[in-house]
């Protein structure tokens, strides 16, 4: 198929930082048929760890004018004499400091304050896809021309009463709405039952062959003769539950077992985590590694992967641990049994530090259990083309309906 006959698709996402949705997007783009699709990608923040992994056929669009503006200092903003941008930035900054909000409310505040600073994009796409809720969803509705529009819901929406009508206005303008798990789909349908017929279930995916190759790129220098634990997560207390992780680590230290816990990721909770490590003298048991474009050698080298989430739409990092045959201890969040088979590929615990610590100690001390989990993981099916099949089907149906 020549370029003129290809389906022109725009994807929009906040950034390509090291997070679940972003890794899933990279995997999706890497496995699409470049002879069928002509793909462009718009980000709101550049320089993320995963940008280097974009397939060559994807055209990464340049930064938007307003997002470049807000990266500059206030002095540079003032000297630009761009009053519209300056007013938007200052208004949002001031309003953000008033009251407490969840993630959805913050995204709503941002867009309602600054949306006039973004120009409408002139190009008319065949398909425009917001690959995350929040700002990408608002942007695709308000600023992008496309024959059909799709949005991904890759987290369970937590909507306050003041956000419900705002979100309804945007989601009702999409032709298709993609959920990444059955529970994720059911959650959305309860909030917006009148949109149920537009819902598609397309699971997050992993680029299996690429992950296997990356896992062998280097050797990880973990502590010898020590039980090494890994967590890969955005550093936050809320849905990711890193406060549970920290308390669990403290309890393990008090129990006197020999372990070292490594955490890969970045986020707003990092400074509090560092303070907790200092106050509780955990530096010889817990290391914050920051971020990396290639966490897979760490998965492969770890004795155990631990996740203490309160909520996940799917759980990409658990899928990566399973792929690399690393036993898992995880909390019982809403979609956990989409992947976990209790006692077979790992342990699922209650959502508190004491239960997580008990699960870790059990899997460390019971060598027979540990061995059986590893054997089960090695036999689990790894390859899946279902995501690509469902994506292609969705696009073909939308194109045919034009």
TrEMBL record:
Cross-referenced Pfam families: Glycos_transf_1
This protein's record includes keyword Heme: no
Keywords associated with the record: Transferase
Gene Ontology MF terms in the entry: glycosyltransferase activity
Domain Glycosyl transferase family: 217-379
Listed name of the protein: Glycosyltransferase involved in cell wall bisynthesis
Organism: Salegentibacter agarivorans
